[in-house]
Each structure stands twice: as C-alpha cells, then as structure tokens.
Design goal:
The complex is a heterodimer of chains A (159) and B (285). With 159 residues, chain A is α+β, with helices and mostly antiparallel strands. Chain A contains five helices and five strands. Chain A folds into two domains: 4-79, Roll (Ubiquitin-like (UB roll)); 88-158, DNA polymerase, domain 1 (Orthogonal Bundle), CATH 1.10.150.120. Chain B has two domains: 2-116 and 131-168, 2-Layer Sandwich (Uridine Diphospho-n-acetylenolpyruvylglucosamine Reductase, domain 3), CATH 3.30.465.10; 175-284, CO dehydrogenase flavoprotein, C-terminal domain (Enolase-like, domain 1, 2-Layer Sandwich), CATH 3.30.390.50. In chain B, strand 2 (23-26), helix 2 and strand 3 form a beta-alpha-beta unit. The chains are: A alpha+beta (159), B alpha+beta (285).
Chain lengths: 159, 285
C-alpha cells in the first residue's frame, strides 16, 4: 500500500511525513514524529486525552487522519512552554496539584489554553462546559477548574 | 484503503461511482473515523470532500435563505453572528452534539448522512423544510432533507451520489424554531427522544408548522398530524394536548435499557409540547 506524503506545520515548525491513509493524526504524532504528549485514551473521541489544535480549533487527534493535516497548522502540548519556561497554565497545574496520573493533562492544557485565548475571563460554568470533552479519572475536576480560573485571573492581571 | 481529495463534487461523485467495495465520504469524520477505528466499517475508498471550494462557507442568500457547506462544523454554526438569530433551534440542536473537540469537526451533513434515527440536528432540519443538493454521476438535483434517511445507518443516496450543500429556507416574518431531546445524562449523550418544531404566527395564531421526531422510529420522522394539531390555534391547552397525542401516535420506537417503548412514546408528546412553546415564544418575538 503506497504511503501519503503530507506537509504540515506543527508548533510553528514545518514538518513532512509519510503515512498510511488509515493512520490517525494521533498515530502520526506519536509513532512517526515522537510527539508523545497527546495520549490515546479511547481512540473514539470520547476522552479528549489526544486533544490538539488544528488551525486554532480543538480537535481529537484520534478523530482526524494524518493525511488530513496537509497544509494545516497543528498545535500540541509540546508547543505550550517556551524553552525552559512553563506556560502559566502548566505552572498553575503543578501549584494546584491539578493532576495525578497525568494521562489527561496534555489534552486539558491544550483545551484550557485554547479557551483562554478565546475568552480571557470565562465563568466557572464556561470552563466546565469547555472542558467537558476532557475526561479525568483522578482529580474529580475541581483542582483542574480552580487552576484554570486562577490562571485566567493571573493572565488578565499580567496583560 | 485509498484516500482521495477531489477538487469538485463532480470528481467526488465520479470517484465514488467508479469505486469497488465500500466507499465513505469524509467531512468532519466524527462518525466515519470512529467506525474505521473500531473496525465496524473499513472503507476501500475514502473521499475527503474538504478540499472542495465552498465546503466551509455559511452563506445568507439574497432571498434570506441560507446555504451551508458540507464541511461547516457545529462550532462555526454557533459562532456565526446571524445564523442563530434566524434559526436558533437548528444551531442549538447541532450544538448539543458532543464536546468542544467534536464541535470543531462535526457537520450537519455528516449527522444527516450517518443515518442515525437519533441524530440531534436532523429533526429540526426536517422541521425547517431544508433541502439538500445531491451531486451524482448525472449531475446535481435538489432533494427534501426528509427523503435522505432510509433506516438506521442507511440513506437513499445511490452509488456515486453525495450531498453537496444544505439549503435552509428564508426565516421570514413571525417564525420560530426549537429542538429538545431527552437523554439519561445531563450532557453529551444520544437522544432517547428528540423533537424539532418550526412554526409561523400571524399575531397570536399559528399559520404554519412542521414538527419532526427523532429516536422513535427507524428514521427521523416528519409528523404532519402533530403540525395540523396546532395550526390555526393560539397554542392553548387543547391544542397542546392534541399535539402531544399526535406526536405519541407517530412513535414506533425500539425498546431498550435507555428507554422503553412506553417511555419514548410518552416523552415524545411531552417534548413536542415543550418545544412548540419555545418555538411559539420565539415566533412572537
């Protein structure tokens, strides 16, 4: 079976890869590009552990083919920190202990960052709805929501 | 599996017509990829329609009607500054489907062509009187949206045919639409019953109505008797009771752990009343 050649942008870097037409974007990120931040929880778009952005919009990387990435701009958790400096969300997640096993964390960070870019002052309800597609079996969500709300407040003060 | 990205719907139709084995069209992929990954349906030919020009456009036409491209996502519908003013029920129904991530990809056309009787956007699409353009080997024709579903997972589209646009009629004066569904959880679940209502008023009197039910028959069903029960009325209690009776009478649901026949039949009437009240209030402005 012949492979498909794809040129795309991932975390602002131009990337080329060859993939099988059956491979999801998640397969490509993890197995071909060694970007293992996005996790496979369910593989059916239910859990959100593979959340990435595609042209600025949240997508489950398991529900998109690698071949569909042609010409798109992909954002993953690996692109959130700048060099050695963590993103404010990442720092707050550590501060609030908003993670335990960590499988859901990359997807939640990508989704929360996308929310704060769209809405710097979300209500708790808006945060909970926005993150409803990101399942966490450890924290009970409360620490995650508080970490996002506090990050939003701090980023508003800083700007 | 062969993956194609045709530049026109005519090319897409030709590829599908000439293909052997199983063919699937790919828009948002929130059903097709789940079926592919779970080995339910492995297409031999997968035709991605998103490279076709205009598939991401939401267009308000000169006569007030709307044309929606087949790859327009639920998020794009919700974010549109005007679509939700004309057709709030349609936008709300689409917005009920899945998470933020699913909303970024899922499409009205996909929801229709996946053929689920429980598809949330389809009852209200029926109620709006929407039509779809169907492109096939012999050209493009316009088809009423209620002529597309054929049964669970099945459509009336022939080999080589695909939906190439969705057309929503002009809203016009005194119109209102609404969609309600029952699910066992509070969010992100599959409808046990869904009801879409679209009506128009002149003063306080309903002059026209279209009502459709989801998840109570092998396909979403238009219920003319339910519409007839409220046309000419001011949606008084007698009209609402007649509406509920007509909606329940149209049910032929499955019986499963998510909802028994009795439950689904009863709830169809309840939701029809509630959705009609919302549409009526919207129509009166």
């Amino acid at each position: 079976m012949s492979k498909i050649h794809v040129t795309t942008t991932i975390n602002d870097d131009e990337v080329e890869f060859l993939c099988d037409p059956r491979e999801s974007l998640l397969d490509v990120l993890r197995d071909r590009l060694s970007l293992t931040g996005a996790k496979e929880g369910c593989g059916t778009g239910d859990c959100g552990a593979c959340t990435v952005t595609v042209d600025g919009r949240l997508v489950c990387a398991c529900l998109m083919l690698g071949a569909e990435a042609e010409g798109k701009s992909i954002g993953t958790v690996e692109g959130i920190a700048t060099d050695e400096e963590l993103h404010p969300l990442q720092q707050k997640f550590i501060e609030y202990a908003a993670l335990q096993c960590g499988i859901c964390t990359p997807g939640i960070l990508v989704a929360a960052k996308n929310l704060l870019e769209r809405n710097p002052d979300p209500t708790e309800t808006e945060v909970r709805y926005w993150l409803a597609g990101n399942l966490c079996r450890c924290t009970g969500y409360d620490k995650i929501i508080r970490a996002v709300m506090d990050t939003a407040a701090e980023m508003r003060e800083a700007s | 599996m062969q993956y194609h990205t045709p530049a026109t719907f005519e090319d897409a139709a030709k590829i599908a017509f000439d293909a052997q084995g199983i063919t699937r069209f790919l828009a948002g992929g929130t059903d097709v990829l789940v079926q592919l990954r779970s080995d339910l349906v492995e297409p031999d030919t997968l035709i991605d329609v998103k490279k076709i020009e205009g598939t991401n456009n939401i267009t308000k036409n000169a006569d007030g009607s709307w044309t929606l491209g087949v790859a327009v996502s639920g998020a794009e519908m919700s974010e549109h500054p005007e679509l939700g003013n004309d057709w709030p029920g349609l936008v709300e129904a689409m917005d009920l489907i899945g998470s933020t991530q699913v909303q970024g990809r899922a499409t009205l056309t996909g929801n229709l062509c996946n053929g689920s009787p429980a598809a949330d956007s389809v009852p209200v699409m029926f109620a709006t009187g929407a039509t779809v353009s169907v492109t096939g080997p012999d050209g493009t024709r316009e088809v009423a949206v209620e002529d597309i579903p054929a049964g669970p997972g099945k459509t009336n589209l022939a080999k080589g045919e695909l939906v190439s646009a969705i057309h929503i009629p002009p809203r016009g004066q005194g119109g209102g639409d609404a969609y309600l569904r029952f699910i066992p959880r509070t969010e992100m679940d599959i409808a046990v019953v869904g009801c879409g209502v679209n009506l128009r008023v002149d003063g306080d009197t309903i002059t026209e109505a279209r009502i459709a039910l989801g998840a109570v028959a092998p396909t979403v069903v238009l219920v003319p008797d339910a519409a007839a029960a409220i046309v000419g009325t001011k949606l008084d209690d007698a009209a609402l009771d007649a509406l509920a009776a007509a909606a329940s009478a149209a049910c032929n649901p499955i019986d499963d752990k998510r909802g028994t026949v009795e439950f689904r039949t009863h709830v169809a009437g309840v939701l029809a009343k509630r959705a009609a009240k919302i549409a009526y209030d919207r129509a009166k402005g």
